[in-house]
Structures are given as C-alpha cells and as structure tokens.
Amino acid sequence: MKIAVVGTGYVGLTTALLFAELGHDVLAIDIDEEKVKKINEGFCPIYEPGADELLKKHAGKNLKATKDYDIEDRDLIFICVGTPSREDGGMETKYLEEAARQIGRRLKRGSVVVVKSTVLPGTTEKLVVPIIEEESGLKRGEFGVAMNPEFLREGLAIYDTFHPDRIVIGELDKRSGDALEELYRPLKAPILRTSIKVAEMIKYASNAFLAMKISFANEIAILCEKLGIDVYEVMKGVGMDHRISPYFLNAGAGFGGSCFPKDVKALIYLAKKLGYEPKLLTGTLEINEYMPRHVVELAERELGSLKGMKIAILGLAFKPETDDIRETRALPIVKELLKRGARVIGYDPKAMENFKKLVPEIEYAKTAEEAISNADVVIIQADWEEFKNIDFDSFENLKLVVDGRRTARPKKVRYVAVGRGD
Ligand code: NAD
Questions:
Q1: Shared-domain flag, residues 173 and 261
Q2: pLDDT tens-digit profile of 273-288?
Q3: Residue ranges of the chain with per-residue pLDDT less than 50
Q4: What CATH number is associated with residue 305?
Q5: Quick one: 329 and 401 in the same domain?
Q6: Which of 218, 236, 322, 403 is the most exposed place for a label (fewest CB within 10 A)?
Q7: CA-closest residue to ligand 1 atom 28
Q8: Which residues line ligand 1 (CB under 6 A)?
Q9: What is the pLDDT of residue 53?
Q10: pLDDT for 422
Q11: Residue with the nearest Cα to atom 27 of ligand 1?
Q12: Domain of residue 187, residue span
C-alpha cells in the first residue's frame, strides 16, 4: 500500500517504521525541516531503542521524509501530530487542524484518512472531517475516515508497535475499517472495530485508568509509610490478583510523559464541559502533583533543612530509555529543591540536553558517578538500568539516597524510598 504518515514524532516515526518494515511504501511528512533531513539521512531524530536500525534499513528506500504534502497517490494517510494540553487543560487542536487543512488540499477521492493522534471523543467527526471536506470539496464517503488510537510506551515504542495487545479501529465507513484490518493483519493482534467516538474514548479511558493505578499505589504508599510497612510488598500481593494485574502499581515520584498528565487533564476538561465534576480523575492528578513534593519532604524528614545542601538528581527524562522530558517529575522536584535553597546537580544518560534547555540554572554532571561524588543527597527520579549497578556506599560524602523509583540498594548509606515505612 502507499501510505503517508503526517507528523514524525514518537508515534508517527514508529508507525512509519512499522509500515515500512511490513513492506509498504511510506511517505513521512513533517513541518520540522531538521527532522525530515535526519530521517532521510537515516539518523533517528528521537532516542528510541531499535528505531535507529529500522530507519537505516528503510530510509531512502521504502521510507522517505518530506515537508510537502505529496499525498495524491496515497491510499492511507495517518495523522500523528501532537495534541498537547492548553493552559486551561483542554486539548490543543491547532496542529491537527493544520494537518487536516493540508491533507484536504491534496486529497484524492477514495483515500482513507486515519486519525492516530489522541483526540477527545467527537474531534475526528466534528473537527477533522469538516476541515477536510471544506478543503477538498469531497464529502465523507468519497474519502474514507478512521480513528486508530496508539497505545505504545515510549522507551518500548518499537516493541509495542510490533507487538500490540490490541488494535482498535474506529470507522466511519466499512471500507476504511477493512483497509486498516488488512494493514494490521500481519501483526496477529486482536482487532476491535468500533465507531469513531468509541475508539477515541478507549484511548482516554485506557490512559486515565493506568494513571489512576499509579496514583492509587502512591496513595497507599503514603499510608504504608505511616504504618511502617512497605508498599511494594503490599502491591506484590495486590497485583497477584488477575483482576488487578501487577502492572502500574509501582509507587514513586508519580507519572509524567507526554500522555498521562495531558490526557487526564483533557478528560477532566471535557467532563466539566459536559456538566460533570469528575472525582477519580481529579484525585488522580492531585496525588500525582503532590508526589514530587513528597520525595523532597522525605529528604527533609531525614536531614532537616536542605538549604545549601548539594543534591544530585539522577534521571531527568520522565522515565528510563527515553530522552523525552515532557511532564517529567524531575522538573517539580528540582523546583522544590531550588525553593528550599539546595544546590542541584542533574544527570541523565539521554535527556540532559533537553532538560538543560528547560532548566539552565542548575549544574549538570557528565556521569552519574560525577554527580554523586559532589553530592550530600541523591534523589533517583528515573530508574535507568545504569543506576541499578551504582555502589552508593562507595561515595564518602553521601549522606542520603532518596529513591523515587525503588532502584537502589545501599547497605551503609541512609536510604529512604516512597512507600517504604521504616
Ligand atoms: P511529538 O510531539 O513527538 O510529534 C509530533 C510531530 O508532529 C512533530 O514532529 C511535529 O513537528 C509534527 N507536526 C506538527 N504539526 C504538523 C503538521 N501540520 N504537519 C506535519 N507535521 C506536523 O508527538 P507524539 O508524542 O508522537 O504524539 C503524537 C500524538 O500521539 C499525540 O496526540 C499523543 O497524545 C499521541 N500518543 C503519544 C504517545 C507517546 O508515547 N508519545 C503514545 C500514544 C499516543
């Protein structure tokens, strides 16, 4: 098939690589000239394990990147542009609208437009389709429309895209659903065909549920600290129940990333617009907002005032195996530390350059060891594999390790972790 993917971020690029690997002819479109250039030269513009190799294999062959919307000969056009949060928590639609306008101007009769970006229920039919109709002069039915939410995890994006738990296909017309079903058949994943609105809501409900599991574990963690018990032991027992599952029950500094916070906020915004005050969703965010402060308070509980203390924060990305710093919990932790007059030294294996742009005022170390050897306190914010092998006991100046991700095991150095009541 001839496929276009509009937007080559984490979702768009991974999607383009999947279709290229399945043998299709893929055109990746982005407004970012630098990204387009890198992709065509075979250099991955994002850090994502496995993406480099696939890009080298397909770039310039059956995967080409461009700034131009040359979509006239494309059978399927996937929209994968960002839908970030607005100031009021609602969903920003300007990238989506622009992509729809550009697609509409060059769309040929019979092509299928697929929204893969996460969009609030109603967006595809009430916003994207009308723009395409107006720009193309075609009516829905003369072009196909589908909504195909993406569930990948950053850091595991390639694996998840090739091994999805399920493929959700929301369809306006059967022909579009059939085309997507045929496209995804080689992945041998369960396929769920629904209406467009249901597909849109499945994505939000999934993310909100996972975020809620994390906040739930964090709420129980705070209770466990007060009770002198360990939330990880508790959640091990809880997660053995197959109705609950052991995933997303890890207490810590809270969730970040480009999806959970913005998607829960957008759902809250939508609920309020519909006249309902959501309680679970609001609580999920409130607990998450509190957790970075809780991490800093754990350090204060152990050492008293942090004024003038040198504090190394390990892990600046929102989680390991990514350079993505969107909504990273490292940011509120650093802000809390600076507010208390601490001196902060940051380190991350991949996300340092991105974080530096956001917070230029702290110090940065070239290695985790360099950060720790200059610090009184270490806060672990993201559980990168390399942190697991650090011998914290070998650093003479180190007074305390605060573990926001349950990754360290020092024997001598004082150690506190979220949800570990001792
Ligand atoms: P991203 O910010 O990494 O990438 C978006 C890309 O779209 C950028 O490269 C940008 O330059 C490009 N773009 C913006 N406007 C454009 C236009 N008019 N034409 C062409 N390109 C344009 O975003 P992402 O993380 O890949 O997320 C994309 C969507 O997928 C969002 O709706 C997000 O919620 C959803 N999603 C993300 C993830 C994730 O883990 N990142 C997972 C599932 C779903």
A1: no
A2: 999 999 999 999 999 9
A3: none
A4: 3.40.50.720
A5: yes
A6: 236
A7: 82
A8: 6-12, 29-32, 35, 80-83, 95, 98-99, 117-118, 150, 152, 154, 258-259
A9: 97
A10: 78
A11: 82
A12: 2-194
* All residues at 6 or more sequence positions from 95 whose CB lies less than 8 Å from its CB, including other chains: 7, 81, 82, 83
Per the structure, how many domains does the chain have?
A: 2
- Decide: pTM greater than 0.90: yes
Statement to judge: residues 176 and 250 lie in one domain: no
Q: Let me know whether 289 and 405 are in one domain.
A: yes
Query: Which of 135, 160, 194 lies at the terminal end of a domain, its last residue?
Result: 194
Q: Which of 250, 402, 393, 217 is nearest to 314 (CA)?
A: 402
Same-domain check for residues 239 and 332: yes
Pick the residue whose CA is nearest to atom 20 on ligand 1: 30
274 contact partners, CB below 8 Å, separation of at least 6 = none
Ligand 1 center to 383 CA (angstroms):
25
pLDDT value of position 393: 97
Query: Any idea which residues carry the catalytic annotation?
Result: 259
If asked whether residues 306 and 375 sit together in one domain, one would say yes
Out of 172, 194, 216, a domain closes at 194
| Partners of 343 in beta bridges | 310
Residue nearest to atom 4 of ligand 1 (CA): 9
Sheet holding 400-403, edge to edge: 363-364, 343-347, 310-314, 377-380, 400-403, 414-417
Q: Do 281 and 179 share a structural domain?
A: no
How many angstroms does the Cα of residue 12 sit away from the middle of ligand 1?
Answer: 7
Cross-strand partners of 2:
25
pLDDT tens by residue, 256-267: 998 999 999 999
Query: Nearest C-alpha to atom 10 of ligand 1 is from which residue?
Result: 7
| H helices present in 137-189, as ranges | 157-162, 174-184
For ligand 1, the distance from its centroid to the CA atom of residue 80, given in whole angstroms, is 5
Q: Could you give the CA distance from residue 95 to residue 76 in angstroms, rounded to a whole number?
A: 19
- Closest ligand 1 atom to residue 262 Cα is 34
* Residue 117 alpha carbon to ligand 1 centre in Å: 7
For residue 134, the CA-to-ligand 1 centroid distance in Å is: 24
Ligand 1 pocket, mutate which of 115, 128, 258, 328 (most atoms under 8 A from CB): 258
Same domain for 367 and 230: yes
